[in-house]
Each structure stands twice: as C-alpha cells, then as structure tokens.
Amino acid sequence: MAQPNEDGTVYFELESSVTRRRENSSALNRHETDNEAVSTVDGYGCNGNDDIVTSVTPAGEEPPKPNRYIWFLTRYFVVVIVVVLVVVGACTAVTFYKKQLPDFADPLQGFSTRGTPIYKAHKTARDVLEEYSLVPPTVRNVIDKSTGSGPRTKRDIDDGEGICSRNNLNYATKLVVESSTSTSLLTSASLRGMCDFVDRLNIAFACPGVSVASRLAELRGKNCSQLDDDDAAYAWTLLDGCAPSYTSGKLKPPVRPEDRANLSESCFRADFVYNVMHYFADVGFDAKSHDLKYTIVYINYRDNRVTADTDKRFYQDHVEGKTMDNGIVRLVTVGFSDHYSVKNEMFNAYLIGDLKYFGLAVFLIALFSLMYLRSFVLVIGTFTNVLLSFGFAYFLYYYVCQMVFFPFINLVASLLLIAIGADDVFVFHDAWLQVKADHPTCSADQRMSKTFSHAIVSISVTSFTTAAAFLANAVSDITAIQCFGIFAALAIVANLAMMVTIMPAIVLASDACSARVTCPWSASTFGAFYRIPNAAYSWVTARVRSFFHTAIPAVLRRVWWLCIAVGLVLGVSALLIDFYKPALKPPTTKEVQLFNKDNILEKWDLDFKHRFPVEIEAANKPRNISVVILFGFKATDPGNRLNPDDKTKALSRDGDFDMKRSETQEWLRKMCNATTESAFADSRFSGLPCLVSTNDVTTLLIESECKIVKTPGVPKENTTFEDLCCVNNRDPKNLYYCLETSVGYRPVDSTEDSIRWKSIGSPVYDNIPASSSVIGYRLHVQTNLSFSGSYEDMRANYGVLSSFIKTQLESAPEGLRSGFLADNDFAFYDLQQSLATGTFKSVGLSIAVSFVVLLLTVRNVLVACYAILTITMSIACTVASIVLMGWKLNIVESLTITLAVGMSIDFTIHYGVGYQLTTDAVSAARTLESARRVGPAVAAAAWTTFCAGVAVLNCSVEAYRKLGVFLALVMVVSWVYAAFFFLSLCHVVGPVGGFCQIPCPTLRLWPRKHKATVMSVYRDDVASH
C-alpha cells in the first residue's frame, strides 16, 4: 500500500515485502543454527531483516563498512554538489568561451557521404583538376607570354538599375495564389483581385508582377484593374478553342508552319494561350469548365541579378508572418529562384523559434516529475543533471574527442537527455525509497550502498547499452550521423557520471532538507502547494498500484500465450513490411525537407512545385551521366572525415604510371576506342579525338581554331594563319605562331575547358614550370545513361560502368591497372547506398553490442536472448509504423531508426535486471515481482518521454517534428513489448537458480577483508536450500 515517508513523500510498499522479510528472517535463524560461526547481525551492521544477499560476517569481527566514496558522499554531499557544479560548470564555460558557437547557416552541411570509394574517387578527380592541368607546359608558356595567366574571373554583370525584364519568368519569384471565395480565378472579380493583390505588394526593388490578369490586360489593351466580364469571357473563348492544341504540343515554340496553318490565328495572339497554360495555370486546370484553382504571380527584381539575400529580404518583408489576403485572392506558397538558399537562410530563425516547444517538453516532464517525485529539490536536481550532462558532453566532444563540426541534429541529444535523465532519476529514487522502507534502521551510507547496488547496476547497464547503440552510428559514412552518434554517446556517459556523483548527493540533500522545517525547499515551508491534494494523489497511486500489482500480473498469469503470440505475429509482419513490401526505400530526390508540410516555404517543394507545367518541364528535363576515368592516381581522402570543411588535398600518385611507354599510349588509345564504341556511350561524341601526347593536344587546339576560321561567314582577317597552320604538313617552325594565334587570347582555364570538352581523353601535366612530365591521364565520356533519382536505376547504371572498367583493366599494362571511375553524378547514389546499407548495419551493430553488454551484466544467456528478441521485435514494429506513414530512408529517418535501439532497450533491461535480482525459485513469481518493483518507474519514464515527443510535434523544423513522432511511437511500442512480451517469455520459460547463468568473478563494492559483493541480489530463499 502507499505509505508516507519521513520527508512527506510517498512510496509503494509491495504487499509481499513484509512477508518475505519475515520468511527470510526465520530462514536466516535456521541457517545460523547450522552454522554457529555466523553472526546474527546482517552484513551491513543494521537490524532490518534485510532481503538482500550480503556476505555474512564471522563472529567476533566488525561488520563491513561502505567504501570510501559512499562514506564520503553521505557525509559531505554538499561538498560533492559544489565540486561537481564547479568542475563541470568550468569545463562547460571554457568550451563555450574558447570554441565558436555552432553556426547552422547551412543546416544540410554534413548530410553527405565521406570516406566511401565513390566519394574518394570524385574528390581525387576534382583535386587533380585543381592542382594540376590539362594544358601542356609549351601551350602554357605561349599563353603566359601573350596575355598572362590567372584565375578565371566571372564576367561583370551590368546591374541595369531600374530595368525590368518582364518576359524572363524562369528566374522570377513565384507567388502561388488561390481564390479566397473558392471561385475560379478566371472570373472578372478574381482577375481584378489579382491585380489588387500585386499592387498591394508595393515592393520597391521589384518590377510589377506578371500574372494571368496582367497578360489578359495587355492583350485587351486595358488597365489591369478595369477588366470586366467581357474580358473574362474572351479569355474563356480563347482557352476553350486553343487549350487542346497546347496539350498536343502544337503551341510549343517554335511552332511548326503546318501547325500554325491549321490553327486559328487567335491561338497565337500575344502567346496568351501558351503563357496561361504553360506558366500560369496548374495541371488541374480544365479549360472547358474555366475552373482555375491555382495560379502563379511572377515577381522580377529591378536589377538583373537574383541573389539569396534579395530573396530573403523579400520573404521577410512581405511574406513571413503576414496574411496576404485581400478578400478575393490569397497567397498559398512562394517559390524562389534559389529556393534552397532561402530555406537555409531562414533555418536559424525557425530553429530558435522552435525552442518554445522544447520548453514545453521541459515543462511537461517537470510537472510529471514533481507529481511522481513529490520534491522540488529532486525536480530541480533532475534538470540540473541534464544541463550538466549536456555541458560536460559538449566539453568532451570538443576537447577530448577533438571534434570540430557540430551539426544541428546534435541538439536532439538535449531532448533525449531530458527523457533519459528523468528515467534514471525515477529508477534511482524508487530504489532509494524501497531501501528506506525495507531497512529503516540502517544508516544513510548503508542505505546508499544498497541503493547503489540495485539502481546503479540497472542504470549502468541501460546507459552503456544506450551509449553503445548511439556510438554504433560512428560506422556510418554520413558525417552528420557520425557526429551525432559520438555526441549522443558522450551525453549518455556524462549523464551516468552525474547519476553516480551529483544526483545521489541531491537525493541526500532532499532528505536532509525535508527533515528541517527551516529549509526553504522543505515540505513544511510549501505546505499545501507542495503537496498535491492527498485525495487526488491517493486515487492516482491506488490506480497505479492496482495496475502494476493486479492488472499486469493477471495478464501474465492468464493470457501469457496471447501476449507472446501477438508479439511474434506483429514482429514478423513488421519485418515483412520493413524489408519486403512496401519496404523502407531510399529517397528519390536530393531535396531534404527542412520544415514541416504547413510551412509556406516547404509547401512549394512538397505540393506546388510539380503542379505547374513550366516546373514539371524543368524537373523532367533529361540529363545523361558523364563518365570520368582517371589513371596515374590513387583514390584517397586524407582529410578529417568528421569535418565537412576539411578538404585537405594530398594526392597520391601511382608510381608505376609512365606515359612515355609505348604500350601505355597504345592501350589508352584502345581504351578510348572501346569506351566510345560501348553500348553506354553517347554516339554524338564518338568522333572526338583521344589525346595521348603533347603533340595531340597542340594539334587539337590549332585545328579547333582552324574550324572557326574556315566557318562560312567568318571574316578573313588573318589569312596567314590559315595558310601556315591549317594545312596537313604543318612546318614545325610555325608551331609557336600557330599556338599563339589559337590560344594566346584566351586564359589558361578557358584553354583547359576546350581540351576537356573537345576530346575523349587527355594527359594530366604537372604544374611545376620547369617540368613537362605527364603524371596522369583523364578520360571523359558522355553516356546515354539517364541520370535518375531512383536508387535502383542508378545502381544499375553504376554496375554497368563499373563492370566495363573492371573488364578493360584486366588487360591493362602495369601502371594503368589502378584506374578508377570518378564522377559527381553518382554522389546522390552514394548517399542512397550509404543510407540503405549503413542504417541497418548500425542497427545490427547496436543490437550485437547491446547483447554483449547484457551478457556481461545480467550474466544469463536466456534473459539476454529474450531481451534482444524483444528489442528486435519492437524496433521492427517501430520502423514498420514509419514505413506505413510514408517516410523515406533519408538522413533524419536513418537517425531515428538507429535511435530506436538506444531508446527501446532501456525498459526491457530494467525488467530483465529486476527479474535477475528477485529471489523466488519459480519463474512466474520472479516475473511478477519484477513487474511490481520496476513497473512504476519504467512506466513513468515512458510517459515523460512520450510527453516530450508530443510537445515537439508542432515544431517548424521537420527533423524535430519527426523526432517527436518517433519518440512518442517508440515509447508506446517498446513499453508494450517490454511489459507484456518480454515478461511473458520470462513468466513461462524464464531461468531460475543458476540455469544458463554465466560464472563470473564477483566485483566488490566493499573493502576486500569484509568479503561483501557490490552485485547484491535479492536473497535466495534460504529455506528452499
């Protein structure tokens, strides 16, 4: 029943506790009768008929004392609190002062692979072009003497202040509007409302908006605000007759003469029909019904350049936080020419704005913690523990692990710490109250020793397994996920350190505080406010006690078979959903959803970008894959994999590569021919030359200039060049003149571009002026393989190219066998592959490590196997749930899946440790005792984490919203599986006695001379032995 404690708190005393203590007391007396050398005083030196296994003390010897740390902790807990606050606070302050605060200006930084073969190959190819040159030294010397070489500079762009280009709609800002009255936007009232909507914008740096209304006004020769029913009817007539011609493609510029002859001239008048159907009307527009639901208003800026800063200024001044509705039309979403940059610019603002939801999560957890712990001191201590853990983890992250990159998803660890920290405090506090109830005559240090031997064992197991699960993310190839795994693991370890140091001291301070009326935090001071009304609290505690003492045991006794059957069926079905159909699939687009679906910026990408033909045409524009094959270098990445800003260039050359060998040149020519003749090569580029010598390069440059000179219509200003250079038998004496005339007017990088795009392959030259050595070879081919966002399609394309290169390299001479495929077109495929394989690799590793930790701590094979089976089933069900919700396996989703192991393992482990620490000789009784003792704390932890997840569901940042969904989901699934599936397994076939127990040397919390064990377990029924 619920009993008040000394400090006014309430604990649950199990009905079987008193009975067990009496039985153990009589059993102990019988044991003493048989062994006269054993003292009747328990191993802790206090009278209380302890039900905990302790080494008995031989007669005549002093009872054992707690170790020095616990002895010091219980007597000088204030000193411990002060020291921890000072040390951890100093470490945190130094870190924040010395290290620059994280900048999330680019929230997707680190959301890419690093260290994979594809990444290494692409980075090496890119570094080769930056560090070396495709231009031979002889040509470079000519350019240097003629014009000088230098870095390429962008052509200056005339600002054109005050100039408005109303016809270029491709780079304009797009405002999607709809009718405020649910009528068609092609009515005269809606058209005038559209004009009024544009006029109200009054953007100083923008041109007048271009809309279907403004186009119609131009066609009719009217002011936009003067459009009437006749004008609307005229537009309807045009669209009725000509829209089918647009659908068939006959109106698409350039219009064929035969199509123009067969259509009415009105269809081409001012291109009105084409513009409306292509630029302004959504794909759902039906010209017959005249029902235009959505349309775009285009806004061009007054200068000729569109920058992210201008777009951001427009968004902040005219869109963000404003209701753009004039009663006739209203804004639905907005799309910018560089939409990705605008979203990145606004990310920090939304990130800060979402802190209120984190505050709500903290408030809900604090409120429930106050109801559960019944102590302001412990609630404040809980959140102090979380803050110290985060700060200490931040210190370890930067100074111990020497990390330099802090992705925004690392902030997720703060929410996880709040949930896990509250969980640990509940477990520790419950153990402390139970020890006080079972051993009322023990001293504080003896009670703390007993609490440590129970609660800290369980907390340590869950902490190490959770930290190991998070740390398993370090095997990922994605930088942001690696960094999060490391930081989250450090945070969990830091929380464990706080649970061993400052939290026990705060518990002691709370007890001491409650015993003094003058203490500002005492129950007597707060009076009625401190205490939840006893009637309400008693009612709640009675229902909770009934649930864990009656309901769950009844389920385990009567329908354990149903719990196991349902758990297995759901788990197997979930595995089929996860891996077979519909299965968790990689993303099909590079775009990452930054904000929730209701955000006005995100609506464009999610819902409206693909509703308009102009955007659909741009998105579906075919693009073929280009292939780069590099020889003479090794694919390496010497930079720091955990720092996306580290682009260290340290190219590793292949020492066996020698371009002077005739067999090398001959094989490279064959390789070029084989590549251009392959099935994947684009036939349009098959006639390009293969350059294997400096002479080949100079010939290409001169012949390229000859083609320009010989082009009909080009003025013959210099016939000398054509006479001396554009001949078959060119005199070597004229080489310098020919080169100077061909490339002397161009910078080096422009010449390099000419070599790159006008040949199949070319040598790579050292940039050292005195050197003319060829250090590598670059083969560049355009293919007919279409670039796609589909993982399966790109995997097939990569397989075709890899297989071809592997086959060709089998016959390559020495020095060319290390050639490799390198191109940026496969970067997204590399990300997809890392997500598809790395996620489940991390999950598998997490489960394996957790199993090992369980074996080392619980030391029972059966309990560990049951726990891993339960965790696997709960993870499968969690993943199946997000699959059915339509989630794709992107960065955030991958992160949540790997988090599932760390978050779902705690409850099962608490029940498993509780089962092992019970004393009954029957598995059913041990299961019920575990449910009674551990159940309330586990349920409280699940509820607080569930509330934290629900609190952040309204976050603007999509990663946090999905985290909230995940936390709420995984808490429900893992708690149900732990409380019913795992306990049902233990109820039926749980180990008893020493069955499947792994023998292990006993760790000791006490001085060795007293021979008492730290791994205290509930006393075996001595009478039964």
UniProtKB/TrEMBL annotation:
InterPro entries: Dispatched_Hh_regulator, MMPL_dom, PTHD_SSD, SSD. The keyword Membrane applies. Signal peptide: none annotated. Residues 18-41 are annotated as: Disordered. It is found in: Membrane. It is a multi-pass membrane protein. Residues 18-34 have a biased composition (Basic and acidic residues). GO terms for biological process: smoothened signaling pathway. The chain crosses the membrane at residues 76-97, 349-370, 376-397, 404-422, 452-472, 484-507, 559-580, 843-862, 868-887, 894-913, 933-953, 965-990. The keyword Glycoprotein applies. Residues 379-509 form the SSD domain. GO terms for molecular function: transmembrane transporter activity. Belongs to the dispatched family. PANTHER family: PROTEIN DISPATCHED, PROTEIN DISPATCHED-RELATED. This is SSD domain-containing protein. It comes from Ridgeia piscesae (Tubeworm).
